[in-house]
Amino acid sequence: MVEDGGEEEAEGESAEMPAAAAPLQRCNGFLPGKEAVGGGRAAPEGGGEQPAAPAAPAAPEAEAMLAAGGGRPEVRLETRLSRRRLAVLAVFSCYSLVNAFQWIQYSILSNVFAGFYGVTFPQIDWLSMVYMVAYVPLILPATWLLDARGLRLTALLGAGLNALGAWLKCGSLAPQRYPLTLAAQAVCAVAQVFILGLPSRIASVWFGPTEVSTACAVAVLGNQLGTAIGFLLPPVLVPNTPNDIDLMAHNIGIMFYGTAIVSTLLFFLTGVVFEEKPKYPPSHSQAVLQSKPPEDYSYKQSIINLFKNIPFILLLISYGIMTGAFYSVSTLLNQMIVTHYEGEEVNAGRIGLTLVVAGMVGSIICGLWLDYTKTYKQTTLIVYILSFIGLLVFTFTLDLGYLIVVFVTGGVLGFFMTGYLPLGFEFAVEITYPESEGTSSGLLNASAQIFGIVFTLVQGKLTTDYSPRAGNIFLCAWIFVGIILTALIKSDLRRHNVNSGIMNLDVKAVPVDSPVEPESTTLKIQSAL
């Protein structure tokens, strides 16, 4: 393990931290400040005076605040990147991968499992939808646990329940044991509640401002890769052998036991690698949040603040529509393909793989683009529109009789639809800062699960009673609504403004030496005291 000791070489920017700094107090109800000492500059508590740098001219509102508060406080915060962050991200991505694999492994073999357990297609669909159903009532307790008990415990719960559910499935290898496999899948669904909300939290707590969006995209990518493997591997491991149930049970057992062993290994790795947070905060925004006294935080007030945030509410609905549509398409993909291309279960899995792998590429590209440009709303809106176009093309080319066309259109659809997922997480963190990343992303996922349940039920009914085209047109209509809602979101990048020294709303940034100080981590915070 890599320890974040004092001898560790800083990988990012760093600065002097005053010795035994006093706890910072909350200022303006938004960000912490520090009482000014002697004429407007905070003196270091470790000893001698610091030479004063020339101050930039203050804005009229700043002058008024200075008159009321007595000066400009200064907070010196050390930031440093930990080497452990890469291990944390890798282990999380891996156990998130296994959880997503367990979600889709039934749906991509819906006809196989329906024959094996002697149940209907809707009952097999519930093995996927149980993930969505479990998430909605449990998300608020899970986000409270993340905020109250921390990242490490939440990660261990997610990895542990994931392994437990995988082992329970190993006991369901008989045709009459559908209730047991449903219960095991429900345990994995509970594990998902402690997984889906972590990408933005891990990225914010462990990664610097120039890599946070990419880190979030990589964390989401793990889940997407699990879905991709879930599309590819089960049809290969479990071919459809309706005349030999024993062989089918043997093949299913190989898949279940392999998943259980990998899940258990990842649970132990989580215990070894995960820590609550690095020794030093990786960014100014995290340093500011970590300096707040714990008693200042109220989970209930955080929820209230989020639901009063109109841009977040619009994003909450639009994210739910897009991600719910992706869940529905993923769940019903096998039925859509087999309807037009009978006996092509393996190719249905490969098309699903193409959809998700293309989305993984889209996620990474979008993450890198956001880190470079910070154009959150513009990128989100463009990707939303292109997802709508991609679904339209997929819908009207599905029944042409050429599988190669379905591969291409599925890849285009996946590139934009799956690539949207980390965009929503990061956009939410930006417009809701300083609220908890776990709470905002948890609510986004809850919205996605609700829309996913409704979309899967309605699209499944339309696909069964009419055709896959009818079900896909239903989704297109909703995604068009999502485009309108996304266009209405006001882009207020609060976290980015803190990291770049531009604080709006109640808090203003006062440059001290220059408007931009690329090598300094001295954060100047002006407040009304």
UniProtKB/TrEMBL annotation:
It holds the Pfam family MFS_1. It comes from the Eukaryota. One of its GO terms (molecular function) is heme transmembrane transporter activity. The chain crosses the membrane at residues 86-106, 126-146, 153-174, 180-200, 212-234, 254-274, 310-329, 349-369, 381-398, 404-429, 441-458, 470-489. Coiled coil: none annotated. It catalyses: choline(out) = choline(in); heme b(in) = heme b(out); ethanolamine(in) = ethanolamine(out). It is found in: Cell membrane. One of its GO terms (biological process) is mitochondrial transport. The keyword Cell membrane applies. Residues 88-494 form the Major facilitator superfamily (MFS) profile domain. InterPro entries: FLVCR1-2_SLC49-like (IPR049680), MFS (IPR011701), MFS_dom (IPR020846), MFS_trans_sf (IPR036259). Keywords: Cell membrane, Erythrocyte maturation, Glycoprotein, Membrane, Phosphoprotein, Receptor, Transmembrane, Transmembrane helix, Transport. It is a multi-pass membrane protein. Belongs to the major facilitator superfamily. Feline leukemia virus subgroup C receptor (TC 2.A.1.28.1) family. Uniporter that mediates the transport of extracellular choline and ethanolamine into cells, thereby playing a key role in phospholipid biosynthesis. Choline and ethanolamine are the precursors of phosphatidylcholine and phosphatidylethanolamine, respectively, the two most abundant phospholipids. Transport is not coupled with proton transport and is exclusively driven by the choline (or ethanolamine) gradient across the plasma membrane. Also acts as a heme b transporter that mediates heme efflux from the cytoplasm to the extracellular compartment. PANTHER family: HEME TRANSPORTER FLVCR1, MAJOR FACILITATOR SUPERFAMILY PROTEIN-RELATED. This is Choline/ethanolamine transporter FLVCR1. The lineage of its organism: Eukaryota, Metazoa, Chordata, Craniata, Vertebrata.
